[in-house]
Amino acid sequence: MSEIEDKLYRNKHAHLTIDELHVLYTKEILALDIYEEDVLNFTSYTDSDWDCAGYLEELRLDRKEEGEQQMKEDYARIYGCRIDQVTTNSEELYDEEKSIVVFIGSVFLESPEQKLPKTLRNISGCLFSENEEEEIPQNLDYIGGSVGFLKIHTVGPKLPNYVSRIVDLRNLREIPTEGLGFPEHVGGHLKMLNLEKIPPEGVVLPKTIGGDLTIDSLRSVYGVLFPEYVLGAVSLASLESIGEDQLPEYIGRDLILGCLKSIDGVQFPEYVGAGVYLNNISRNERNKLRKQRPDLTILPTP
To answer: For burial by CB atoms within 10 Å, which of 192, 236, 275, 295 has the most?
Structure first.
């Protein structure tokens, strides 16, 4: 990022490489306290004295201050499209003849008649819909804000590859038989509060979640591949059983397993930043786990 800063300091219209443009427009900061490694689409920093996310945002603002035309040129280079396929105009977005690739702004789908173009790959802001059914363009691979399908009961076959903020599927009841492709990375929370059913073939959740993972209605997670890293809490409040190596490797806050009936064979995460809630497990079993894993804060106590 220092190289980008040097270029923009000398000239805010400076020619940036494609990789440098990706840093400004399609990457986020993920702070993992105990891991020093890069995660796809994130840059990992462990120096708590340096506000890396704030620094990146300042660089973005510096570039965006140069105006809409500069942003359009940058996006066109990233996606290899024409400048007129990048727009801030909602009417152009829904015009099929325009074949829009990047929309600068947020999108709110108010009716089923509003169809996003199949050519669309990037929405710089949020994507919200209150429709009960929604068809998502399968080429859409980046959302710079949050995704909220607030009334949808089932969705598929694929969500955008990368969501910078929250994915809210609060009323999703089931994942369809043909499956659901989740984003590889979610920068904020992933909310599926009412999910009750997954197909026998299972489902692969995002590799990394920057906020909380909430799946509070699912009783069994057989076939679910959980993220490696969840920086917030993991709430599986109705879960009664879990495979021995299913849980994430890293959980930044609480792990809530209030209805879990047994911890026999369960492999708990390497790191949990707050409490592990096992309300349905006997006191003796909780005490055994405390001896096996003194690094975990087992609740309730004693």
So the answer is: 236
How far apart are alpha carbons 103 and 48 in whole angstroms? Answer: 34
What tens digit of pLDDT does each residue of 15-37 get? 888 888 888 887 765 554 434 44
| Domain boundaries, given as residue ranges, for the chain | 2-66
pLDDT band at 99 (very low <50, low <70, confident <90, very high): very high
DSSP label at 279?
T
Q: What is the pLDDT of residues 282-302, one digit of tens each?
A: 999 999 999 999 999 999 987
> CB of 184 within 8 A of CB of 39?
no
Q: Phi and psi of 225, rounded to 5°?
A: -95, 110
- β-bridge partners, 102: 86, 122
Tokens of 231: 């920086």
pTM of the full predicted structure?
0.87
Tokens of residue 40, six digits: 């796809």
Give alpha helix (H) positions in 80-223: 90-93
Sheet holding 297-299, edge to edge: 107-109, 127-129, 147-149, 167-168, 190-191, 213-214, 234-235, 255-256, 275-277, 297-299
Buried b (16+ CB within 10 A) or exposed e, 188-209: bbbbbbbbeebeeeebebbbbb
Q: Provide CB contacts within 8 A for 102, sequence distance 6+.
A: 75, 76, 79, 81, 85, 86, 87, 120, 121, 122, 123, 124
The rounded distance, in Å, linking the Cα atoms of 51 and 130 is: 36
pLDDT in tens, 172-223: 998 888 888 999 999 999 999 999 999 888 899 999 999 999 999 999 988 8
